[in-house]
Each structure stands twice: as C-alpha cells, then as structure tokens.
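Quick illustration, no need to memorize.
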Amino acid sequence: MSGPAGRAASRIASASRLAAVQALYQIDRDSSSAESALSSALARGAVLDDRGATAEIDPDILSGIVRNVAGDRDGRLDGMIDDALSDGWSVTRLESLMRAILRAGVHELLDNPGVPAKVAISSYVDIAHAFYDRGEPGMVNAVLDRLARLLRPREFASETAAGG
C-alpha cells in the first residue's frame, strides 16, 4: 500500500507501537496489570509530547503487542534480548523504558511476520529517538538487527549474498 492511505496506515501503526511501549513501561514501572495499562492506552492514544498531544492508534496492533509481551511469563523475550546484548549486560540492567522498547520489538520480530523486519526495527529505533538523545537508539538498532538476522534470515539473504 502506497500513497496517502499507505502513509496514514504507517503513521497509525507507528503510533500504535509507541502507545504499546508506553503501556509496557507503565506495567513495568507501576506494576500495573496489562489490562489496566491497555485500557489507559486505548483511551488516550499514543502520547506524542509533553503537552499531551496524541495520535490515532490501531487497537488491534496495540492490544496484540501489550498482551503478548506482558504474557511472556516464561521469559522468552528477555532471554533473547540477553543473548543479543553485549557481554556484561542483561535485561535486568536496562531501565524500564529500554526494556519496553526491546521487548516490543523482539515480540514483533518473533510473532508478527507480516511486518518486515526492517520496518519493525526502524519503528522501534524511532521510538527510542523520541525518548533518548545519546547512544540508546543505536543499541536498540543493534539488538533488534542481531535478532532479526537470526529469526528471519530470508529477509537478509540478499544482503548476505552481496556481502552486506
């Protein structure tokens, strides 16, 4: 889908990912239930700035990310993130917001094959840029790219063959 409709759908998907990260942060920070955080996020949309500006979201995208990440009781996502982090780092050492971004990104790479890996990575790097101005977006990119190449090697096959 291209053109204005495609751009609008892309903006809504990006806003939905941002709202999901905000809800996951709320769950981690406040020990909120997934349903409570999800209900709040659905009511307000994605909060874009400190003045409270919001963006339209897709409830299905938001709900899918929040419920699946919050429901990861066996720690599958955290284990994958731990494996992709630099030596000496673990998910528990990361701050809540960074955990939320990485968990949501890994969930999409694992469980949402309809979203191209590069689109998912770019979306979560953009979210990191919204909150951080140092090296954190680069870390999000590195972790998600490393995992995407393991989880979806076919999407990167042409780069590998070309030496990229």
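The mean pLDDT is 91.
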